[in-house]
Amino acid sequence: MILLLVPALVQPTIAIVLRKEIRSLSTDEFYEWSTALHKFRDNKIPDFTFPNLQTITAFHAALTLNETYDQAHKGANFIPLHALLIRAFEMGLQYWYPNASSIYWDWSDDPSAIFTPELMGEYNESTGVILNGAFANFPVGYVAEVANEDFLEWVPESQTVLRYESLPLNTEIVGRIANQAMYYDPPATTEMVEACGNMTSFRDFWCCVYYDEDSRDSCGSTSGASESRLHGQVHGWFAGYATVGDSLVRFDGADLATSPNDPVFYLHHSNVERFWQAWAFKTGRFMATIADPCGGYDEETPEGHGIREPFYPKIDMVDAVTDEILPDGADGVPDTPYAICKAIYANPPYVYDTYPY
Prior knowledge:
This protein is mostly helical. The chain has one domain (about 5-350): Di-copper center containing domain from catechol oxidase (di-copper center containing domain from catechol oxidase, Orthogonal Bundle). Helix content is about 30%, strand content about 5%. The chain has eight helices and six strands, in the order E-E-H-H-H-H-H-H-E-E-H-E-H-E. A hairpin with a 2-residue loop joins strand 3 and strand 4. Helix 1 (about 25-40) packs across helix 3, helix 3 packs across helix 7 and helix 5 runs antiparallel to helix 7 (about 265-285). The radius of gyration is 19 Å and the shape is globular. The chain starts with a strand and ends in a 5-residue tail after the last strand.
């Protein structure tokens, strides 16, 4: 199984796509996007690394919980890894609707406006049940639906639902209670986004996106640090918590490992990808080298987080031009931040309707 990361120049069916903000979509465009998402969740695409939505969720969880101390988040590969997942999600949608794209949500501008019957749905403010819209009673993934057993090493044998933590309510459907009092509203501001755009290396850029200003000196360390409002706060803001007995229980979108269960995950991370592409166009591509195509990748990262260290579990990607699986080794370096930066900087398969800087 393979993942085509960038458009093949010899395959005209793979085209550069325009990623739009969710509120700018026409009724027909949103219908196509949401229908494609349901099809991607309910079916399996042949000969694809991520044949359904559940397999992306499982891979994200496996990277978060593997032995390299959270390969998905706690190092410089946080940005390219999530770019890979958002591209895989986009390709999954395009299998069902060729014009679909990985739309984004600009949460710095009236973020609650997407939770309407016409878009992501209203929700019960006590139970978190999504009441209406395209994602009412949207089911979480099940272990049996995941196509690759290597992505399930973190799952206990008796577990059937694709959740890292059991949720004692809404046991089989996605829930959310957005904009609770414990979070900022909006979760982050345009000024915070613009500050990251001024960073002069990839290392400083990703640290700005992931960590708050007081924690950036320890950026990438395995010790505790506070997340910035541009990532973790947004997850908490849109997913929220419910009170169960004496405990606060977070909903799917706020779980570090299995947050892709909630479709809003993809809207949020496409927005983060928008920041990266803007930074890459403004600064990163001018700093990129053959040795470091990211443009200032931090090599002083925890084990498993280096620019040429493969993700675990391993996946295969194909060369965009030759259509051949990239070889292992120092030159090809498949499924690594190196390969993703090289592909996305050189020939991005998508652009955005607007950029923050």
